[in-house]
Model the fold of this input.
Amino acid sequence: MRTIPYEQLVPGLYTTAQIGVPEEELNSFLAEFNAQAAANGYLDQINTQLTVDHVATSKLPTAFRLVPDDAPVMEEVLVEFHHLLERDHLELNNAWGAILITENQDGLRRMDVIISWDGVVIENGQVVMENGEPKPLIQLDENGEAVLGADGQPVRVRRVQTKHLFLHQDSAYFD
Done:
């Protein structure tokens, strides 16, 4: 993440989910992704975590956006991030990553790296497989019964992890 030049750290929320989408479909894909993220509560889950990590409420994201054309290194970092998530696809089932960039003060930007994935059952440090797929971790109610969604299917546990770093305009990361 530190390889992104300061001038390419354009404030906004960017996702690895857009990697591999044909350029002519990016706008419609992102609109649909934003709708799903809102409907499934993913943005709320991310914002809750970011609030814990001391991101000001006024800086919380409301939607994902396209990487600006003049930020090719940021795009490269998102591609690499996407490949890392794919590599660990069993543990990070249905994962996507995001980078949130906020302006904290003049010359200082905060970069939050976010991973969202469906939890899976892990026993003895290994992912439990079921019918060739990772066994999903299911939400349980107070009685230990599976919570069912509107479709009548058990609701999967969705996990979010965030880490952040601050980058100053005068940092020498890029030399």
Remarks:
- The chain is about 25% helix and 25% strand.
- The two ends are 15 Å apart (CA to CA).
- Residues 120-156 form one domain.
- The chain has a mean pLDDT of 91.
